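#struct-help
A.M.: can someone run this one for me? Single chain, 251 residues.
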Amino acid sequence: MLAKRIIPCLDIKNGRTVKGTNFINLRDAGDPVELGRIYSEQGADELVFLDIIATSDKRKTLVSLVEKIAREINIPFTVGGGISRVEDVKELLRAGADKVSINSAAVYRPELISELAARFGNQCIVLAIDANFVNGKWKVFTHGGRRETDKELFAWAREGQERGAGEILFTAMTRDGTKDGFELGANKILAQTLRIPVIASGGAGTLHHFSDVFLQADVDAALAASVFHYGEIKIKDLKHKLKEDGIEVRI
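D.P.: on it. Structure tokens below:
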């Protein structure tokens, strides 16, 4: 059995780590370089860096900041925000990223997934999907959750898999920052219907929420931000709790 992964997420705006609720009301959460170093030392399995306004502001991810974080950590590092070309990925990999996360650009030009997978390998491409529950359906949103599309979560995830994505990072916008627990139903469907790993995001508030998403939805990884940034949950404590609950993790 593959070990389940715990992934802290650094949402970056103007060079600082931020966190909000339902994608709005952002507040400062600290220096991303320092947080990345701490999480690496605490035993996080991976680290995700998302420049949350790169697409909306029509600019590229802060490469220099990626370089600084990469020098401080020794765990796999995924970077996303404003990626739309092969050249963007090359630049980020040179800066120290191990994987890239694509979202809005892939929605509007799905061929991007295939192009990047062919060039860099499936294992390098994470398809991030932000979805909100609208009129009985999980609708895909882009531009940091600001723009609704006609795509539906499960169909888009399957298409992403077929086009070459190596993982799906699903953020349930209804749960984001609420600390009410992960979205179990949608994550379970994704985990059951896809061949590639699923990373659950949105809603972590307690140790039990992580156990629930692994045991009930059977996702491969769980991503969280504020509970780690503000010291509400320590990664070491979380992993010992998961181990006690019979979940395979790296300690």
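A.M.: thanks! The two ends are 15 Å apart (CA to CA).
D.P.: also worth noting: The CA atoms of residues 63 and 91 lie 8 Å apart.
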